[in-house]
Amino acid sequence: MTDSISESRLYMWRAVIAIVHADHVVTPEEKELAESYLANVPFSEDQKTILQEDLLEAQNIEEMFNQITEPVDQAEFFGFARLMVWCDGDYDRQEEEIFSRLKDIQMSRIDPEALKNMIVESRKAFDLERLKEDDEFKSEAKDLVSLGRLFDALKRNPAFPGK
Predict the structure, then answer these.
(1) CA-to-CA distance for 125 and 123, rounded, in angstroms?
(2) Helix (H/G/I), strand (E/B), else coil: 160
(3) Residues near 161 by Cβ (< 8 Å), separated by ≥ 6?
(4) Which candidate, 12, 58, 3, 13, places its Cα nearest to that of 34?
(5) Would you call 90 helix, strand, or coil by DSSP?
(6) Mean per-residue pLDDT for 27-51?
(7) Which residues contact 23 (CB under 8 A, 6 or more apart)?
(8) Do 76 and 22 meet the contact criterion of CB atoms below 8 Å apart?
(9) Does residue 104 or residue 155 have the better pLDDT?
(10) Which of 72, 75, 80, 70 has its CA nearest to residue 41?
(11) Res. 121: pLDDT tops 60
(12) Cα separation, 80 vs 5, whole angstroms
């Protein structure tokens, strides 16, 4: 089976590489970081070719970003893109403006009701896990108390070693 990543993840990487061109200068550091991603992420050969072409020719960052469909990929874009723009030690105004626009796009995608429901469900799952852990702790504590009582009873036995 050949390696490849999802379409959403590919567009995340395409958007990361597109940001390299934001200031119209591809520095050696940016190129090196992009090439390290190409070498270490399990892209298919076709995906690598697309990304190598993107490194040579600027793509529209917003178009690439709008193709990122998975929330985890959308979130991780910002981390990888920030690494990319900072790797040459220069974060210019143009890159800052692009990040601001992309964050606005990201925020417009958030459905407040769905987010609220996700938080409520997550909290319920957390509370259930805590209750389960509390029950396990109580059970272990009972076992320890029972073992302590057994040990105390054994110590009172004249045949107990050490008496």
Answers:
(1) 5
(2) coil
(3) none
(4) 13
(5) coil
(6) 91
(7) 90, 92, 94, 95
(8) no
(9) 104
(10) 80
(11) yes
(12) 16
Q: Compute φ and ψ for 4, nearest 5 degrees.
A: -170, 160
**Confidence class of residue 1 from pLDDT cuts 50, 70 and 90?**
very low
Closest alpha carbon to 20 in 31, 11, 12: 31
Q: Distance between CA atoms of 50 and 1, rounded to whole angstroms?
A: 20
> What single string gives the DSSP state of each residue in 98-137?
HHHHHHHHHHHH--HHHHHHHHHHHHHHHHHHHHHHHHHH
Q: DSSP secondary structure string, 9-55?
A: HHHHHHHHHHHHTTTS---HHHHHHHHHHHHHS---HHHHHHHHHHH
Ranges of each domain in the chain: 7-110, 111-163
45-56 and 28-40 are packed helices; what angle lies between their axes, rounded to 10 degrees?
170
d(CA 106, CA 19): 16
pTM score, whole prediction? 0.60
Alpha-carbon 156 to chain mean position: 58
